[in-house]
C-alpha cells in the first residue's frame, strides 16, 4: 500500500500531519482519515479480532468498518471509534482497541467539547447524493425549511460545491436515530466539537445510499482483504493505492470498473468473477477468470504486516487450482441498501431478486426512502459464500469472530429464525450492528435451510446507528446541569440559615441546619428535641400534589388506592397506599376531598411524576370511560409544616381565621382560610406523631408565610428542621418511607398495614396479586423494629440480619436493616428492618454481622414513641 505522488481530492499535500498509532510515529496529510494515513504508511494490519485474536486490517472506508477500531487519547479522548471515521489531526495519538492498545487510565481523559442544539424543519434529508439533493432543492423552492445532513465532509461525498438557497446543510453529520413523528437525533463532528442536533421534522427523506457486500470464503479476514469500493475511495479521496498486485473477487460487473481504475493507477489486477456466463465487460484487454472462486488465502507469519495477505488460492469451474501472489484482495458481492434508520423506526423490507438485496416496503407516512437506499442498486448474481467442506474459517461477522460453521451449528441445534441465530451466535450485536454481516447471515440461513433467497431478512438494527460516547449524548447536561435543580420558594431562607442540602429527586431539601460548631448528629438531636418538646417548622413544599377532578373522581381513586376514598367526606383526609400490578407498595400519600367531584392528592417527593403518569396511563388505556382529569400542581403550592406541642400556639400567633381547636378542627381534616393574610389550606396531618399543621399557600406566598411563621414562633423557640430529623421522628412512630423501607418486594401486609387494604370494596390495582400464594406464604419479610442491646451501637442501614450468631460463612440471611437512627427522645439508637416472619419474632434476639463485630438486637414492634398516639392532638 502506497501513497501516489498526485491525486486525492480530500487531502492537502502542502500540510503534513504527524500522528502516533500503537506507539509508532507516522505522517499523513491534512484531510486524511486515520485509516487512510495508516494505509498510506503501509500499515495493512495492526488490529486483532476481539475473540480469537486473529490479525485484522482496515476493510472499509466508512462507518461500516468491522475491524479497525481505536481509542483516541490526544488531542481529545474517544474510547472507541472506527479508524475510518477519525479525521487526522496534528499530534493525534491512537491505539488499537483489539491490538496492543490499553484503556486510558481514568481521570486523564480530555473529552471533546459537546454542544446540544434544537431545530424544527419541514423537511429533513439524510444523505446528500443526487437523490437527496433533489428533494431538498424542491422543498426549498416551495419556501420550506430544509435541513440536509451528510456524514461525509462534502455534500454528495465528492467535493461538490452545491449550495441551494433555503437549505441548511450539515456535513460530518450522522443521524444516530429516527423516532416517532419525525424526531431525529443527529451527531455533527465539527473539529474537536461533538454537536448533537435534536431535529423535529414534518417529513424525512432517507438518501443513505448502500453498503457494499462481501463474500464469505476461507480465511476471508486477513489484513489486506477489503471491499472493492473502499479501495476505489482510498485512491480517489486520499491518493492511496492498496497495492501493486491486487486480486478482485466479485459477482457483479461494476467491480470490473474498479479494476480499470486501479490499472490506470499502475496496479496489476486480476479479476476473479464467480459468474461463468458474463459478457460485455470492459476488461482493458485483461481477461477475467470467469467461474472461478477464492478457495482460501495465505498470510505472512512475521511481524511485517502482522499476518497480512500474501496470496490467494483459486478454484476453477472444473475443480482446477491456482495460487496468485497479491498484496490486496478486494471483494464485491453486491450492494445492500442502507436501511438501518428505516428499520429502526418500524419500516418493512422485502427481497428484490433483480437487485439481489432487501428493499423498503411499508413505513411511517412521514418517511420515504430514495435512491440506492430504496433499492436502486446495480444488480449482480446473488452469491453469499463459497462452498467448502470446512466452514470453520469462513468468517461472517468479523467483530464477533463468527463463521458459517457457527451459523450451521445454531441451525443444527434446532433454531430456524434469523433472530434466534443472532442470539445464539451474537452476530450483529457488536459495535457495527451487523452492517457488513447482517444480510449475509440471513441469506446463509436461508441457503442452509433451503428456503430460497429472501425467505428471512436480516435482524433489526437499533439506535444509535454508529458508536457515540456517553459524553456526547449527555452534552452539557452534566455536573450541576445533569438534572434540573428544583428549589422551593423558601430556599434562600434555608441557605441563609446554613442548611446542608439533600438531593431528593430533583429537589434541594434542607437535610439538617447546623449551628456554629455542631456536627450533623448534634444538629439532628437538637432539631428532634425541639419538635418533641416545643415546636419545629419544615419546608414540605416538595411533596407531590395532584388535583383529581370529575364526576368519577371517587370511583377512580377507589381503583388506584388500596382503601376506599369514595366515602370520604368533603373536608376530610385519608391516608392511602398505591400498589403496582404485582401487589407491591408503589407509593403513599393522603387524599383530601375538596368537593363531591374533586380531590387533592399528595404523593412522595420522588413519586410525584410517576404517580401522575400512572394516573394518566390508567385513565387513557384502561378506564377511558371515567370522567376524570388529573393535574399536577406540586409547584403551585408551598407547604409549611408546623409540628410540636406548641404548633397551635404558633399558628394562632401568625394570624388565621380558622378555628384551630380540636373540636372544630380534628385530626385528618383540612380547612380553607387565611394565614398571615394569604389564602391557605390548612391540613391536620402528622408525619411526626406530634400536633401538626401543614399550611399550604400559593407558591408566590410561600416565602412570606415562612417568614411570618418564623417570626411568630420566636417566643416559642421555633426551630427549622430538615429531612434527617423528619426521618428520625417518623421512624420513632413506625411510619415507613416508600423506597427506603420498601424495595419493590413489600406488600401492605408485610408492613403490618392490613387496615389500609379494603378487599371488600371492589377491584383496585394490585388486588389480585395480593391473593397469590407467594404473597401470603409464611416466612415473608415483615416490618419490625430493632433495639440494639449495645445502647451505643448504631446499626448500618442495609446491614443483613441473621437469626443465629454461629460465625459460620456463609450464613443464612433473614432480613436487612432499612432505617437506623440515634433517637434523642428515646436516648438510644433504634432501627426499622424487614425480617423473615418478623411479626412472630417480637422480643427475639437477632444478630447483625459486620466486618469487625456482630451486634445483637432485640426485635420489637415498629412503634417506639407515644404508643397511645395522644400527642398528635396537643
Strand content: 25-35%
Please tally the β strands and state the result: 49
Assembly state = single chain
Q: What is the alpha-carbon Rg in Å?
A: 36 Å
The rounded distance between the terminal residues' Cα atoms is 90 Å
Gross geometry: elongated
Mean pLDDT: 93
Number of helices: 17
Give the biggest beta sheet: 7 strands, mixed
Q: Flag low-confidence runs.
A: 99-107
- Which bin fits the share of residues in helices? 10-25%
Describe the structure in your own words.
- The protein has 17 helices and 49 strands.
- It is an alpha+beta fold and 874 residues long.
- Strands 9, 10, 11, 12, 13, 14 and 28 form a seven-stranded mixed sheet that branches. The chain has a six-stranded mixed sheet with strand order 40-41-42-39-33-43. A six-stranded antiparallel sheet has the order 45-46-47-44-49-48.
- Mean pLDDT is 93; it is low at 99-107.
